[in-house]
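in:
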C-alpha cells in the first residue's frame, strides 16, 4: 500500500501539493494560511502516507509548489527544500532538515519581517550579544501561520499561565509575562540570580498593578500631560513598543528605530522613521517618541537629537525619576 501511495505522489502531484499551498484540495483545510496552520501532522499525505518522510522532493516539485504564495514562492524555489521545515516542521522524521527560519527571514530576502538589524537580540543567555539563530526563533514562534498579519493566538507559542492553564493572551505583554515573573517561569527558560525588584522578574507586578505602561488603575490624569497622537494615558502599552526582540544596537533591547516598536504611534510619525540612541543612560530619544509636553517646561522645546522635542530633560537618564513600578511617578 505504501508503494502505491508513493507512486500516486509522483503521478498526481497537483493533489498532494495542496498540503503546501500548491493546490485547492486534499489537505488545504488542514495545512494552509487560511486554516491558520502550516505545521504538518500525522495526517500528511491524506491518510498519513507521507508522514515521517524526510525527502520532500518525493512528492513536491519545486517548480510548482507555492503557486499562490507570491511573497515566498521565488525564495523557496531558489533556495530549495531546505526551506520546507521552517514553516512546516520536520514531518515526524528525525532525518529531516532542522527547522530553519533565517534562511528566509533575513536582511536580503524578507528584510522587513521583522527588522533584524543590530548587535543585540532576545537570546536566552543574559548579556550575550549577537543575532538570533533558528532555534531561538521557534521558541516564541513555534507554529506561526506566516500570513503577514500578526495574531496573538496564532503567531506566538502557547505557554501556561500562573494557574498552569493555556489561557489566551490579552496582548503581547501577556506573552512576555509567561516567562518574566517571579514564581511561574517556564521550564528550561528560568530567570535566576536576580534581585526581587529586578525588572526582568518584577515586570509582572509592575504591569498588572502600578506601572503607567500597564493596566493602570485610577483616573489616568497626571501632572505631566502630553502624549503624541495614538497614545492616551489609559493606553496599555505592550513591552514590545519599547523593547524589540529581533535586533537593536541599544542595551536592554530598547528599540533603536521607531519602526521596531511604538505601534500605537501615528504612522506618519513612526514611519519617518526616528532613530533612538540610549548610550550613557540617555533615554530622552526613546521617551520623546510618545511623550510631548502640552505645556512646555524646562527643556521641553529642545531637540533630543533625533529631531523630536517634548520632554523636560534632554541628554539625561529619565529612569532616575521615572522607573517601572513607581506608583507615584508621572509618565511611567
Amino acid at each position: 500500500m505504501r508503494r502505491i501511495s508513493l507512486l500516486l505522489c509522483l503521478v498526481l502531484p497537483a493533489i498532494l501539493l495542496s498540503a503546501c499551498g500548491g493546490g485547492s484540495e486534499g489537505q488545504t483545510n488542514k495545512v494552509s494560511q487560511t486554516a491558520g496552520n502550516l505545521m504538518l501532522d500525522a495526517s500528511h499525505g491524506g491518510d498519513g502516507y507521507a508522514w515521517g518522510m524526510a525527502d520532500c522532493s518525493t512528492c513536491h516539485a519545486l517548480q510548482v509548489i507555492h503557486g499562490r504564495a507570491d511573497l515566498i514562492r521565488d525564495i523557496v524555489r531558489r533556495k530549495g527544500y531546505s526551506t520546507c521545515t521552517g514553516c512546516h516542521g520536520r514531518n515526524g522524521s528525525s532525518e529531516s532538515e532542522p527547522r530553519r527560519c533565517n534562511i528566509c527571514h533575513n536582511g536580503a530576502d524578507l528584510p522587513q519581517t521583522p527588522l533584524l538589524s543590530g548587535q543585540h537580540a532576545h537570546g536566552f543567555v543574559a548579556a550575550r550579544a549577537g543575532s538570533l539563530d533558528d532555534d531561538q526563533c521557534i521558541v516564541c514562534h513555534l507554529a506561526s501561520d506566516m500570513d503577514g498579519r500578526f495574531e496573538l493566538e496564532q503567531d506566538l507559542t502557547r505557554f501556561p499561565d500562573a494557574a498552569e492553564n493555556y489561557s489566551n493572551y490579552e496582548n503581547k505583554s501577556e506573552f512576555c509575562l509567561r516567562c518574566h515573573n517571579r514564581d511561574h517561569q517556564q521550564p528550561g527558560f528560568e530567570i535566576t540570580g536576580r534581585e526581587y525588584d529586578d525588572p526582568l522578574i518584577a515586570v509582572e507586578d509592575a504591569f498588572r498593578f502600578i506601572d503607567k505602561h500597564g493596566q493602570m488603575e485610577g483616573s489616568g490624569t497626571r501632572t505631566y500631560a502630553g502624549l503624541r497622537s495614538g497614545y492616551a494615558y489609559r493606553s496599555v502599552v505592550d513591552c514590545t513598543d519599547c523593547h524589540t526582540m529581533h535586533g537593536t544596537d541599544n542595551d536592554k533591547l530598547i528599540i533603536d528605530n521607531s519602526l521596531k516598536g511604538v505601534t500605537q504611534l501615528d504612522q506618519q510619525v513612526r514611519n519617518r522613521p526616528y532613530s533612538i540612541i540610549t548610550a550613557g543612560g540617555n533615554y530622552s530619544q526613546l521617551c520623546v517618541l510618545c511623550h510631548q509636553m502640552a505645556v512646555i517646561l524646562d527643556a521641553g522645546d529642545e531637540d533630543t537629537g533625533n529631531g523630536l522635542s517634548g520632554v523636560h530633560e534632554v541628554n539625561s537618564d529619565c529612569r532616575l525619576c521615572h522607573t517601572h513600578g513607581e506608583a507615584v511617578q508621572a509618565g511611567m
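note: Residues 76 and 234 are 44 Å apart (CA to CA).
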